[in-house]
Specification:
alpha/beta; five-stranded mixed sheet; 18% strand
């Protein structure tokens, strides 16, 4: 069982279809080295593990302790097959936190990019939108996805791999080991830890 938001959209949702076509063009341009594409979002890591199902020997039960835990928020920019930029934040993520991370990301740019993100309130606030002109002057364009379209934000796939596949079970023994292992994984995304993207679809 899993949560889904697709049911909130009409089957003939023209806004979703338009965004899907535009994204296809953005990614094709990315692979043709015209302009880089990054997907942005944030996720939370804590000692409450994400284990939806698993296999164990008959008559045996595998238990993973789940306890109240400090939460590490990870804000990341992921570019298919090429790069991953991330920052950690402890505490609530507000618009100023997001703006600060965008500013830090802008300092790393060597070519024009388009950043694709959802319509979370911290991404659509006045504080965030008021920075767009400044970021565009630095070569960064923001593209907001339609509502109820999480499948168009590819970084969601990365968060899923991180939580369900890449974090080893032993890392949940303590907050320190968990956060240390997560940071190690995040630092090696794009090299050791990769998402497969079918480039031929965007030829």
């Amino acid at each position: 069982m899993r949560r889904r938001s697709r049911s909130f959209r009409d089957d003939d949702d023209q806004e979703f279809q338009r965004a899907q076509q535009e994204m296809h063009g953005f990614v094709r341009g990315h692979f043709q080295r015209q302009r880089d594409v990054y997907f942005f979002d944030q996720t939370g890591i804590s000692q409450q593990p994400c284990v939806p199902y698993g296999w164990t020997p008959p008559q045996q039960t595998l238990e993973i302790p789940s306890r109240p835990s400090v939460r590490m928020n990870v804000l990341g920019f992921w570019s298919p097959e090429t790069d991953f930029f991330w920052r950690e934040h402890f505490g609530s993520v507000n618009s100023q936190v997001v703006v600060d991370v965008f500013d830090a990301f802008c300092e790393t740019l060597t070519r024009d990019v388009i950043v694709i993100l959802d319509n979370a309130p911290v991404h659509t606030s006045h504080r965030f939108r008021s920075q767009r002109e400044r970021w565009e002057a630095q070569g960064l364009e923001v593209y907001h996805l339609p509502t109820y379209s999480p499948e168009l934000n590819w970084i969601e796939r990365l968060w899923k791999q991180l939580k369900y596949q890449w974090i080893p079970l032993w890392a949940y023994q303590s907050v320190d080991t968990l956060f240390q292992e997560v940071k190690l994984i995040l630092d090696h995304i794009g090299r050791v830890f990769r998402l497969n993207v079918q480039r031929e679809k965007f030829a």
